[in-house]
Design goal:
The chain has one domain: Jelly Rolls, CATH 2.60.120.790. A hairpin with a 4-residue loop joins strand 4 and strand 5. By secondary structure, it is of the alpha+beta class. It contains two helices and nine strands; from the N terminus they run αβββαββββββ. The strands form two sheets. Strands 1-9-3-7-6 form a five-stranded antiparallel β-sheet. It has a four-stranded antiparallel β-sheet with strand order 2-8-4-5, with no helix packed on it. It starts with 8 loop residues before the first helix and ends in a 12-residue tail after the last strand.
Amino acid sequence: MSQLPRFSRLHRHFILTIVLCLGLTACVGTSLVPSPYFERSIDLAHADGNIDMRMKIAEHRGYRFHLSFKYRADDQVDRAQVRELTGGTVGDQKPGVPTPVEIKISRIETEHETMVYQNITDPILSSWGADSLDKVIAEVILEPGIYRLQVRSLKSELKLLGTPIFLMVTYNPKLNPITSKN
């Protein structure tokens, strides 16, 4: 009787981990465009820092587009520096650094694009978390489809150099998608 090779527990876990990673990579590789929730780095330190991308919207619902100014979690000095840059909320005496941006969202049809939202805004601080301070730049209801998202910085602000800033697209998971009532 031939004996099959015995693998140690460590070898079995290693092989299982490799198989799982390959499976997840295959799943991710099939998506050509992101679907919210996602984030992309954006340069707000220079005028014309921009994002121009396609995104896939799977559900009819309200989506929030916001700038997320990151800091190191549990680092109060870093948080205070980023807070100085972002400024405060409505009525706060700390205006922060201006971050004017233009946002455009177009629905991509077969042979053309249809503008569904366009705005220029200089957003104020709207929320904060364990590692970021956020400024909402748009809240838009979108139907399922493929969209072009363009966000452009309108002013150079070198004080923002070195601060990780991301455009984030999210939605409130506590709210149900919109259903049509025919």
